[in-house]
Amino acid sequence: EGPHFLDYTYVGERAVAMFGHSMAEWQKPRAWINFIHADDRERMKRLAAAELKPGEDHEWEYRIVHADGRVIWVRDLFRVDRKVDGSLELRGMLIDVSAQKQRELDLEESRQELETAMKQAEAANRAKTSFLATVSHELRTPMNAVIGFADVLNSQAYGALNDRQRECVADIAGSGRHLLRMINDILDMSKIEA
């Protein structure tokens, strides 16, 4: 159940105003643990049940549910002291850190979104590299055929060519070799990227 000193003997007016629970509610037994958000309650019970050494400063962070249902993140700064009669007394304050916590959560969400975007960009880049490698590889075969047949025509193996035909065949072969160099460069770039 945790130490008895987690029942409040004094609650400031600001705590009443900040969390919306009346003074009478705060003074009920176990009020503190009941105001804590259900998702934090077991963790806080464990922390409260641990030995809280007198004379040491402690700091906890958890959520309190406002009387209207809103969730408020608090930083609980406190100290445990031994009273004259030997009993333990906890004195501290609760600070509303909801805005800071929201910024942290927003920052973490942005970091995750950025990580996802980077992974998507890397996947797209790999797909592009793979696509270029495949396409350039597929283009080389017909390009070699174009160049090869232009060379055969240029050698006049199928008969004599007139000047105009020789110019055309030379243009086909030259353009084909130029395209093949470009295709090979793209393939080389894809291999380097991969």
Please explain how this structure is put together.
This protein is 60% helix and 15% strand. The chain has six helices and three strands. The chain has helices spanning 13-19, 23-26, 31-35, 38-49, 98-154, 163-193, and strands at residues 57-65, 71-82, 88-96. It is rod-shaped, with a radius of gyration of 39 Å.
Q: How is the topology of this model organized?
A:
Layout: H1 13-19, H2 23-26, H3 31-35, H4 38-49, E1 57-65, E2 71-82, E3 88-96, H5 98-154, H6 163-193
Antiparallel strand pairs: 1-2, 2-3
Helix pairs in contact: 5-6
Class by SSE composition: alpha+beta
Strand order of the largest sheet: 1-2-3
Q: Proportion of β residues?
A: 15-25%
Helix and strand succession? HHHHEEEHH
Q: What is the alpha-carbon Rg in Å? A: 39 Å
Report the count of strand segments: 3
Largest sheet: 3 strands, antiparallel
**Helical percent range?**
55-70%
Mean pLDDT: 88
* Total count of helical runs of at least 4 residues: 6
Q: How would the global form be characterised? A: rod-shaped
Gap from first CA to last CA: 60 Å
Unreliable segments of 5+ consecutive residues: none
Write out key terms for the chains shown.
single chain, 194 residues, 60% helix, rod-shaped
Task: Give a brief outline of the structure.
The longest helix has 57 residues, at 98-154. The model has no long low-confidence stretch (mean pLDDT 88). Helices cover 60% and strands 15% of the residues.
